[in-house]
Amino acid sequence: MKPQNNSRKDDIISWAQLKRDIQEAAPSLGIDDIGFAAADPFLSLKEVLLDRRRKGYESGFEEPDIDKRIYPELSLENPASLISIAVAYPSKMENPPKSEPGRNRGILARSAWGRDYHHVLREAMKKLEEFIRLRVPEARIESMVDTGALNDRAVAERAGIGFKGKNCLIISPKWGSWIYLGELITNIPFPPDTPVTEDCGECTKCLDACPTGALVGPGELNAQRCVSFLTQTKGLLEEEFMLKIGNRLYGCDTCQTVCPKNRGKHWNHRPELLPDPEVAKPLLLPLLDISNREFKERFGESAAAWRGKKPIQRNALIGLGNFKDRLAVPKIIEVLLKDPRPELRGTAAWALGRIGGSEAMEGLGQAAEAEQDEAVRDRIERAREKLLKTSLAGDSKYGNPSPVPRTD
Length: 408
Fold this sequence. Notes:
Layout: H1 8-25, E1 33-38, H2 43-55, H3 66-70, E2 81-88, E3 107-108, H4 117-135, E4 141-144, H5 152-158, E5 163-164, E6 170-171, E7 179-186, H6 205-209, E8 215-217, E9 220-221, H7 227-232, H8 239-245, E10 248-250, H9 254-257, H10 277-280, H11 292-299, H12 309-323, H13 329-338, H14 342-355, H15 358-370, H16 374-392
Parallel strand pairs: 3-10
Antiparallel strand pairs: 1-2, 2-7, 4-7, 5-6, 8-9
Helix pairs in contact: 12-14, 13-14, 13-15, 14-15, 14-16, 15-16
């Protein structure tokens, strides 16, 4: 069987049979769902992507060349088909550990539970490639996961994996949105699948629940405000966002957990994707002392490790501030006074201003005398002013604790 055959009828029969063989083999290859689509350009997507860029809604993690996201032929010469694959992941944690004073915990988004999905998808696609090449040795295939040029969700939608929800995620009628996506481009002309006609209807739960209003409209995301994006950035964050991050260390699942299409959907059939509770919901204070080696040993298998430990440690400080646990104040002061990284010192200052108390105020005073970084000094002064205003308003000295943020 070759990608080009002298008989048009034989072609159609041969490629349809190979497609059926692939569909039947998919579960044994580590694939939960698979769809096929024509490799035509995504012309309707172009204006959408250009509009996002004009509005400043991009995250900066995307392929910068918009044409490469539109035209499959820029990734593989003379493509005929796209193959979209989906791997389902768990939405629930068995016996999750609880937070308590002095032992408060952060949370990783479900996409960072278990083994890094990039590895899982690449292994599945490698098996799929091998399966195809055994039958069509001369086939040309290009595979992509997350960081590829094409838009994973646009490919999945065209290939019938699911529909694009108002939360911008692909929602499968069977699996919900708890799926990882990857795709292959090939010169084999597979018969295409039919896109899913289901949609969100009148539901706007995801838009209403988005912590920062990043979902600016149905199917429209301002990534610069998305909590998932913000937790992966480096540097100082504005207070507006730190308050909304709560105790999230990596990612955000809010728009998925409130989605009615995900109700009752939990997938635990892949042991490598199940969470280790002490990794997926770790104690916050120990993260401030974790070494590079310890971080790699503990989180290296998770998708959350790709940006290194600095954003995780910054987010741990944000979580401690939002919990308002005064037992964490001595360690936060230590970070403020001794950590060489200004983004951590500045975040520590904010956390102390959020927690309050005389000990926090004294630590901020010490830092004000020694700090040289202008941005950090600004955070220190803002925290001190906040605590002084709180004290003058008649609360207990330099502030009162408040309830801990809700954990997803």
